[in-house]
Amino acid sequence: MAHVVTSPCFGCKYTDCVVVCPVEAFREGEQMLYIEPDVCIDCGACEPECPVSAIYYEDDVPEDQRPFIALNAEMSKACPPIYQKREPLAGRPD
Ligand code: SF4
Ligand code: SF4
């Protein structure tokens, strides 16, 4: 079991979630982040940090988001780790 990042994460550039993870389980894809299920210890710390509620405990992933369980497992193996909160790009309009 692990926590899973789902579709509301698409396009997030703030990455509030990654800094609270004690085991550095987040991976950075081009469009969203993924959680490496073999690394996640299910501490739950990241879940309330996400402003768009994109992170779920695996058993709690909504039905229409279930494909993201396999997607996190697959994509987290192919994407680089992200450890630090990414600041918004300079000049980015608010
Ligand atoms: S805070 Fe939420 S939306 Fe932003 S990168 Fe993390 S999981 Fe994705
Ligand atoms: S549940 Fe805990 S260990 Fe898993 S990704 Fe979130 S913060 Fe990291």
Can you walk through the features of this model?
By secondary structure, the chain is α+β, with helices and mostly antiparallel strands. Helices cover 13% and strands 13% of the residues. Strands 1-4 form a two-stranded antiparallel sheet. The longest helix is centred in the last third of the chain and has 12 residues, at 67-78. The site of one iron/sulfur cluster has 13 residues, from loops.
Compact description:
The protein is of the alpha+beta class. The protein is 13% helix and 13% strand.
List the helices and strands and how they pair.
Layout: E1 3-5, E2 26-28, E3 33-35, E4 55-57, H1 67-78
Antiparallel strand pairs: 1-4, 2-3
The site of one iron/sulfur cluster has 13 residues, from loops.
List key phrases describing it.
binds iron/sulfur cluster, two-stranded antiparallel ribbon, alpha+beta, about 90 residues, single chain
Tell me, rounded to a whole number, the average pLDDT: 92
Second-tier CATH architecture: 2-Layer Sandwich
- Count up the helices: 1
CATH level 1 name: Alpha Beta
Low-confidence stretches: none
Bound ligand species: iron/sulfur cluster
The general outline is globular
Biggest sheet, in brief?
2 strands, antiparallel
Helix fraction by DSSP (H/I, runs of at least 4)? 10-25%
CATH third-level topology: Alpha-Beta Plaits
What Rg is obtained from the alpha carbons, in whole angstroms? 12 Å
Quantity of strands, as a count: 4
First-to-last CA distance: 37 Å
Number of domains: 1
The helix/strand order is EEEEH
User: How much of the polypeptide forms β-strand, as a percent range?
Assistant: 5-15%
Give the neighbour order of strands across the main sheet: 1-4
Would you tell me the structural class of the helices and strands? alpha+beta
